[in-house]
């Protein structure tokens, strides 16, 4: 039974897919923001979620994934496809993390929104809210080949190419605000007597 049905605080599932860890960090930050608002939050990695996870038992669901090679993580895509009926009935939101979102001009950032639109069309999901999140260049975590490739790609888009350090582009205020706004979708209607 959901929290809204029994008068307790709403329960929220935050499910994510992460390659280098930035999307997991974003998901944890959202969890903290939601918990600070008084919500109970379950955080799960789409690649390792429990087989008995009942998505329909939550009052709301936030799903997040990062972009690599032009696509979101396969486990997140599978999670959404498997649970699309529940996601389309319950309050739900999607956030997409990419380096494209960190580019300088709106025209350069536009493909990041396109990744979301493609993901939603492919999965049949119609979330209540979406957020494009600028990711991070974590040179220290890349192997030699990937570090060189990421440096090359960053240089092509006038990005940061000093591989001796990492770069984080995430706007944490936007992330927390998005989570708080999502939480308002779960508040009982005014005038409710419980």
Automatic annotation (TrEMBL):
Residues 12-177 form the Flavodoxin-like domain. GO terms for molecular function: FMN binding; menaquinone-dependent protoporphyrinogen oxidase activity. InterPro entries: Flavodoxin/NO_synth, Flavodoxin_dom, Flavoprotein-like_sf, Protoporphyrinogen_IX_DH. One of its GO terms (biological process) is heme biosynthetic process. This is Protoporphyrinogen IX oxidase, menaquinone-dependent (Flavodoxin domain). It holds the Pfam family Flavodoxin_5. It comes from Natrarchaeobaculum sulfurireducens. Coiled coil: none annotated. It comes from the Archaea.
């Amino acid at each position: 039974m959901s929290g809204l049905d029994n008068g307790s605080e709403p329960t929220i599932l935050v499910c994510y897919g992460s390659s280098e860890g930035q999307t997991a960090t974003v998901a944890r930050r959202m969890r903290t923001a939601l918990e600070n608002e008084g919500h109970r939050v379950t955080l799960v990695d789409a690649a390792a979620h429990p087989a008995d996870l009942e998505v329909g038992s939550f009052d709301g669901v936030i799903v997040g994934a990062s972009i690599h090679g032009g696509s979101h993580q396969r486990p997140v895509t599978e999670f959404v496809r498997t649970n699309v009926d529940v996601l389309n009935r319950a309050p739900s939101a999607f956030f997409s993390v990419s380096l494209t979102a960190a580019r300088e001009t709106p025209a350069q950032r536009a493909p990041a929104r396109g990744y979301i639109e493609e993901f939603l069309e492919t999965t049949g999901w119609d979330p209540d809210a979406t957020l494009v999140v600028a990711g991070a260049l974590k040179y220290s975590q890349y192997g030699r080949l990937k570090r060189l490739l990421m440096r090359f790609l960053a240089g092509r888009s006038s990005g940061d190419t000093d591989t001796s350090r990492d770069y984080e582009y995430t706007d944490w205020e936007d992330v927390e605000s998005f989570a708080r706004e999502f939480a308002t979708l779960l508040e009982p209607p005014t005038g409710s007597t419980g």
